[in-house]
Amino acid sequence: MKQKSGQARSGPPLYFSLIWLVYLAFPLETILNMPLAKMWPQLLLLAAFVGLYLYCFRATRFRFEAALLLLVLVGVFCRLFGEDFVFLTFYPSPIIGTLKVRWQRFAGMGAMLALLVSVAVGFGLYQDENDIFQYLPAMLIMMTVPLGMQLSRRSSELKTKLALANDEIARLSKNEERQRISRDLHDTLGHTLSLITLKSELAERLIAKNPERAALEIKDVQTTSRAALKQLRELVSGMTMSTTREEAGHAAQLLAAAGMNLRLHGDECLSELPPLIDGIMGMCLREAVTNAVKHSGATWCWIEWSREASGIVMTVRDNGRGCERSEASAPVESSGLRGMRERLRLVEGELEWRSEAGVGTQLVVRLPLVDKSGGKEATGA
What we know:
The chain has helices at residues 14-19, 25-32, 36-58, 63-81, 92-97, 102-122, 129-209, 211-236, 244-257, 275-296, 335-346; strands at 261-265, 300-308, 311-318, 350-356, 360-367. By secondary structure, the chain is an alpha+beta fold. Strands 1-2-3-5-4 form a five-stranded mixed beta sheet, with helices on one face.
């Protein structure tokens, strides 16, 4: 059923307000014990009280005026039947807390305070210690209920706004992720397809003159296309590449857990790196640090970045056990280093790996910096 105009759009449901009407059994019993001639007017007053109370929970229009009338009726009941009827103030108290206009809330709380003070003074409740302990806590609760209702309402509004903000952040994040994937696809495929085109044309020209060289170029085309396909699968499957700075932070945690000291230098070179270059360098850093932790047995690890005319250079070295020169070429073909070479080949990057027994291992990654037009920022030796 659609909500009718003028009904409350927030607050407790109607059955919640009906539950508390059970406490009207006590004033109802007092009224029913009166003579019949006096009983009916009081029952009508009590019925008007109940009607106003339910109206306040069902409608927002004239809620402030209805709450004030409830306080007036509580005062009338106290005047007719005694101070015990002041506990009926518990009914308009939460209603005042639901008022959305600030001055109405303060006016309602002021009227409620005036009623409670009038009853306390009129019946001399402050003169009897038992009355003080009986009425004072209840009166304090009556005054704080509107504040609690307002805090609850504000909390609900903030939660709603937070949920909307989170939804908006999620939407913007998805859009940003789509744009990032679009940029990476453009940079990756545009650069790689250009490279494949050039190598294919070169191979075509070399077929007649130098078949062996042409075969090598074709193999390079195949390797580049496989690397591009792998990169494309990672991008379209939603895999996000960590930045080099993020991987440096992870490296610090990993090396500390392994009992290795870390020294970073030149990380200011990482500012404003193209996303693809930043991601590939981050993955290379992750693999290099993982290998150092697993195989080097080192106590120190140095990570350095520097800018050259041809691009950016990252050096990762340790003081571990290293390996004999006769064994130095074997790890190059390991899956980790082979994966690094494939990624670097995708953007025409280079990998150098050197290791010496008793001295340690050094890995150098060189990556070109590519501008938006697809050309290198700088060229050089």
